[in-house]
Design goal:
The complex is a heterodimer of chains A (about 400) and B (about 260). By secondary structure, chain A is an alpha/beta fold. Chain A is about 45% helix and about 15% strand. Classes of the chains: A alpha/beta (about 400), B alpha/beta (about 260). The interface between A and B is medium-sized, with 25 and 25 residues.
Chain lengths: ~400, ~260
Amino acid sequence: MRTWYFSEMAYHPAWDRGLARGSLRVNFPSENLDPVEAGTLLNRYLDEFALCDEVGLDIMVNEHHSTATCMTVSVPMALSIIARETKKARLLSLGNPIANRPDPVRVAEEMAWLDCLSGGRIEMGLVKGAPYEIAPANSNPGRLMRRYWEAHDLIIKALSTTTGPFSWEGEFFQYRAVNIWPRPIQQPTPPIWMTGMSVETGTLAAERGHVVGTLLSGGLAKPMFQAYRKRARELGWEAGPDRMAYAAIIGVGNTREEGLRRADTIADYVRTAPVVFEPFTNPPGYNSVGANVAMLKAGPRAHRMVTDRNGVPIDHRTATVQQFMDTETVFAGTPDDVFNQLKAFNERMGGVGHLLFFGQGGQMNHQDAKANISLFGKEVAPRLLELGMPEQVAAE
Amino acid sequence: MGRHVTVSGVHLEIEEKGQGRPILFLHPGEGLQAGRAWFDRLADNHRVIAPHHPGFGGSVLPDWMGTVDDLAYLYLDLAAELKLDNAVLAGACFGGWVAAEMAVRNTNRFAGLLLTAPFGIKVGGVLDRDIIDMHAISRAEFMRRAWADPTKGEIDYTRLADTELAGIARGRETLAVFGWKPYMHNPRLKRWLHRIDIPTHLIWGEQDGIVSTAYGEAWKSDIPNATMETIPNAGHYPHWEQPDGFASRTLAFTARL
C-alpha cells in the first residue's frame, strides 16, 4: 500500500459563518474570506505538501470551486508549484473534473507539461466531480457521463498521439488540429485514475484498467472494488491492489490520545464539507434515475447517511471520531494502532494498493500537521508498502 | 396512459381527448400532468392532443436529440403526421418555448398560437435574470414562486409508484438537457418572433414568480398583433391552478380564429 498525502487547502476561518448560513459552497459569498489570510494559508498548506517529499510520501491534489472547504481551484496550478518543490514524490492529480471542463485538449496539455516538468512523476485522475461543482462550472448535468467519456477519450488520444495533428468531431467537443506540445514523458499516457462510489464505476474502470478510488466509506468501497476485480477477471486479467485506492482521514500521534485528537481536528472537515444549500446537492441528471427514485421516495428531509461495519447509519455532519472509525472514514492512534487498523482494512477490502492520506482538514495547526505527516511517513508508510494482496482474496 | 406513436423515429406517448378544433398542447418543464382538471376542461370544447416530451412520461429521448430545435421539428412532423389543419398550437412554460420555435419556422397547419407563461427569449441585460433559476432555489421557494396557492401544487412523491417517479426523474434530467445553458432560452429567438404570422395570445398568471408579466409584455411587443391577458389567483401554471378560467379564455381565443 502506497501513501499519497492530500489536503483540500481549506479556508476554515469562514466555516462557522458558512454553517450558520447552512451552506459552505456555491452560494456562500466570498466577502467571508480575507484574501491576505487566504494567501498565508495557501503558503502554509504548500509547505505541508513539500514536507511529504522529505518523509517519503507521494502527493495528491484535488480541486473544488466556490467553497470555503477547498481553495485549490486548479489542480495543475498547485501541482506545478509542488513539482518544483519536490524531487521523488509521485504527483497525483485527482483530479481534473473533465465533464465540467470546456476544453479537454487544454487538460491534456497541462498534464503533459506537468509530466515533463516533474520528470515523469504525474499520475492523472479524470473525475466526474461532485454534484455541487455543476453550478460553479455551469456544466449541464444532463448527459454528464456521456460528456465525461468523450472528454476522457479525447484527452487520452491527445496525450498519446505523436504524429498529429488529428481532428475530433464529437458530440460535445470539436477540434480541427490537436497536436499537443510538449508531450508526456510517460507513454502512452501517465497512469490514469478514476473516482466513484458505485459498482458501475468499478466495472467501467476495470474495462479500461484505470486505478479506481473512493473516499471515506468502506461500506461503499468494498462492492466497487469487488466489481472491479470481477470485471477484470471476466476480461482475462487479475486486478491487483495497485488498481484500488481509498481516501481516509488519518491522525497519528506519539500517544493514542494525540492521534485521536489530530484525527478529530481533521474530521471537522468531513463534518463541514457536506453542508451545502439543497438545490446544489442533486442537479438533475447527475445521479441515476434509480438513485433519484430512491431519494424522492425517502422524502425531502432525508439526509443520506453512510453505514458503519455493522450496518448502523452514521451522519457525517455530527459523527464522533469513534463513529468515523467505524465507517472507515478515520484511522487514528499510535503508529502501531494505525498500521494495524489499515492492515485489517486492507484485508476487509480485498487489497487496497493506494491510501489517500487526508492529513489536514484545515483546522489543524501547522505544527500538528507537520508532526502528523512526519510520523506517518516515518513510522507507518514504510510498513504499509509491505502490505499486498490479502491471502484470502488471492486464493479466491 | 396515452397512445403511442413513432414520429421521425422518435417514440412518443400522446394523451388525447375531446372533439372540435384541435389543440396541440406542449407541456411545462414539470410535466404534462393530464390527471389535473385542465385537460378535461380544454377537452370540453376541443380535441386536445398533448404529447409527453421525449424523455418525459412514456416518451423516449433518443441519444441524438438534445436541443429545442429538435423538439420544434419533431412536433412539426407530428402535426403533419396527424394531418392537423387550422389547429391551435399551445404551449406552457418550457412547452411555450418549443411552440414559439415551431411558429417562427412554419405555421401552415395552425390557425393560432396560445402561449402560457413561455420561457425561451432573452429580454434584459447580462446581469438580469429574466427567468428565475429554478435549480438554485429550494423546492419550497420554487413552489411559492410557481403557485399562487402552493398547496394546490403539492405532490406527495413518497406515495407515487416507482415507474411514475422514474418518469419524473427522467423528465427533470431531460429539462436540463434541453434548457440548462443558456438557461431556458435561445438568445436569438427574440430576433425571429416577427416571423410569427398567425394570431397569437399570451396568458399569464398574475402571481407568476418564475417569469414576470413584464417578460410577457416583451413577447407581446415582438410578436405582430399579439394580445395578452392575465389570470388572477394563478402562478406560473394558470392551466393547472385555474382550469376553468384557463379553459374559458382558451375558448374565447379559439372562437375568434
